[in-house]
Specification:
Helices cover 27% and strands 36% of the residues. It contains eight helices and ten strands. An eight-stranded antiparallel barrel has the order 1-6-5-4-3-7-8-10, surrounded by five helices. It is globular. The N and C termini lie far apart (46 Å).
């Protein structure tokens, strides 16, 4: 399976709406969706129909991104390094991401790098031979804001695309958990679950949601939730920070 896009840089925006579901709600929502959606290519490619997503989040020494989320800032940035493997293998893919949020609207810029480039960056926080604008911005922020790895978040994602022409992506994230570590591939890590027995539903779209999707959400009584995996990861792994005056 190839994860590499045709272009080196992805730059796109969309609206993201999130819900937290019980397992029973998940089953009902999934059953209601199936006439309208099918597995995306990543989900279809794995026997379990769930693929690993693992992200190492960066933040400043005073946890600026964390506190901006808690304060409800309308516009905020997040920087992370993402992979779809739990270890370095020949097929392991590394993606560098910068994500800007304006309310429910998000803009995400991403670029893929080699394992060697990633390992070198984690040693000296410098992309040695890259002229990619995403990597330049990532490095600039790492040095200007003194960003460092704060928490590792991982989950199993089940993704769907619409059968029709609607530009909508629907994902269910299972077993969301975090570990306090400075690396994307820790030898030993103690993971803590975010919300045991709950599944995160995300609806991502550019235009208006189709009427059938609105009807499903309404019929199931779903309520929009704020669901920052980064902030939840900090909350469950760094209790000293949660109780610190930074949160006041």
């Amino acid at each position: 399976m190839s994860w590499l896009p045709a272009a080196e840089v992805e730059n796109y925006w969309r609206y993201e709406i999130k819900y937290r579901l019980t397992y029973q709600q998940y089953q009902r929502v999934k059953s209601a969706l199936l006439p309208y959606v099918h597995f995306d290519s990543y989900t279809e490619a794995v026997p379990s129909h769930k693929y690993l997503v693992r992200s190492l989040y960066f933040d400043s020494l005073d946890y600026q991104s964390y506190n901006e989320k808690l304060d409800g800032n309308h516009s905020r940035y997040k920087f992370r390094i993402r992979t779809y493997s739990d270890a370095i293998r020949p097929e392991t893919v590394i993606r560098i991401e910068a994500k800007l949020r304006h309310g429910t609207k998000t803009e995400k810029l991403g670029a893929f790098v080699s394992i060697e480039a990633f390992c070198d960056f984690m040693k000296n926080y410098h992309w040695d031979c890259e002229a990619n604008p995403v990597l330049i911005e990532f490095e600039r922020n790492v040095h200007a804001r003194i960003l460092r790895p704060k928490v590792l978040v991982e989950y199993q994602r089940e993704g769907y695309r619409c059968r029709g022409k609607e530009d909508v992506r629907i994902t269910f994230d299972h077993h969301v958990q975090s570990a306090q570590t400075k690396t994307l591939f820790p030898t030993h890590a103690f993971f803590r679950q975010h919300y045991p027995h709950q599944i995160v539903l995300e609806i991502k779209h550019r235009d208006q949601q189709p009427e059938w999707l609105k009807a499903i959400v309404q019929s199931q009584g779903l309520k929009i939730e704020t669901n920052s995996k980064y902030c939840q990861g900090i909350d469950v792994t760094q209790l000293d920070l949660v109780n610190h005056a930074l949160r006041v």
